[in-house]
Amino acid sequence: MLLEQFNGADRTEAIARLRPCIDVTRWCEHLADHRPYGSIDELLREAGVAASPFTGDEVAQALSHHPRIGERASGDSTEATLSRSEQAGLGSVDDEIAQALAEGNAAYDARFGRVFLIRAAGRSPREILDQLTARLGNDDATEDGIVAEQLREIAVLRLKGILSP
Ligand code: 2AL
């Protein structure tokens, strides 16, 4: 979808286009209601503004859509396609890293009671594993801040992808 089309779409359509970036209604509505945008950069800036901060409930809602690191999203929704592309580098990791990621995911879930989330695009499996291991040592408040930031990064990257010609 081009920026012009996004600017001209009716509100419901614009919100539907944004939803696969992150399922936070307030964020989608904010971006739809601040149209028109003069450039993609302007839209991306506004996306950051609307994401700062996400509330705890918004984070929980958004996390429910993210498959675990190392798990391929199924289906052909926009959201699943984006997730598979972000996690493409994890498709052929060696057994040792795959096993360590699975164990790390389980440990994170036990420690924080939610899915471990990281912006996977642009990161190697080793870097993701190292971050997972390091973040297990965080206190709750630090980790809450990191998760919100990772969600923001994923949403902004997806938005960029959706609106690139
Ligand atoms: C994901 C995902 O699906 N895409 C991404 O960047 N990170 N999942 C996750 N648990 O971090």
List its salient traits.
9 helices, UraD-like, globular, binds 1-(2,5-dioxo-2,5-dihydro-1H-imidazol-4-yl)urea
What secondary-structure arrangement, pairings included, does this model have?
Elements: H1 3-8, H2 11-18, H3 25-33, H4 40-50, H5 56-63, H6 78-86, H7 95-112, H8 125-135, H9 140-163
The protein binds 1-(2,5-dioxo-2,5-dihydro-1H-imidazol-4-yl)urea.
Q: Largest beta sheet, briefly? A: none
| Count of strand segments | 0
CA distance, first residue to last residue: 7 Å
Radius of gyration: 16 Å
The CATH superfamily label reads Oxo-4-hydroxy-4-carboxy-5-ureidoimidazoline decarboxylase
SSE topology string:
HHHHHHHHH
Low-confidence stretches: none
Shape: globular
Q: Which fold name corresponds to the CATH topology?
A: UraD-like
- Residue-averaged pLDDT: 95
Look at the structure and give the CATH class: Mainly Alpha
